UniProtKB/TrEMBL annotation:
PROSITE patterns: ARSC. It comes from Oceanimonas doudoroffii. InterPro entries: Arsenate_reductase-like (IPR006660), Thioredoxin-like_sf (IPR036249), Tscrpt_reg_Spx/MgsR (IPR006504). It comes from the Bacteria. Belongs to the ArsC family. This is ArsC family reductase. It holds the Pfam family ArsC.
């Protein structure tokens, strides 16, 4: 089983997810969007599987700082460019479990995923 967790190390939800995985004894790799960068092909794959509406974090400060006109003009291409330029705008955590993607963290969901 290949497990990769994507996010930003200072995010509280990432910290909770990492703690849960460690306590459950799950061997995983962590990729920090901000520190490690974001592969455009990988982002395109995520957008294809999840859609930009699901992947875009509208609760964060970067999104809230966008003008109303920029928010209204968001679409597949503009969202992809925005996420590439500001990876912190990707909802997190993004868990890749053998190629199956899961957004967000809820202990009960992770427990089901890992048969805990």
């Amino acid at each position: 089983m290949t497990v990769t967790l994507y996010g930003i190390k200072n995010c509280d939800t990432i910290k909770k997810a990492r703690k849960w995985l460690e306590q459950a004894g799950v061997d995983y790799r962590f990729v920090d969007h901000r520190a490690d960068g974001l592969d455009p092909e990988q982002l395109a794959h995520w957008l294809e599987l999840l859609g930009w509406e699901q992947l875009l974090n509208k609760r964060g400060t970067t999104y809230r700082a966008l003008s109303d006109a920029d928010k209204a003009a968001l679409g597949p291409e503009s969202a992809a460019a925005l996420l590439q330029a500001h990876p912190a705008m990707i909802k997190r955590p993004l868990l890749d479990l053998d190629g199956e993607l899961h957004l967000g963290f809820k202990p009960e969901h992770y427990a089901r995923l890992f048969n805990q």
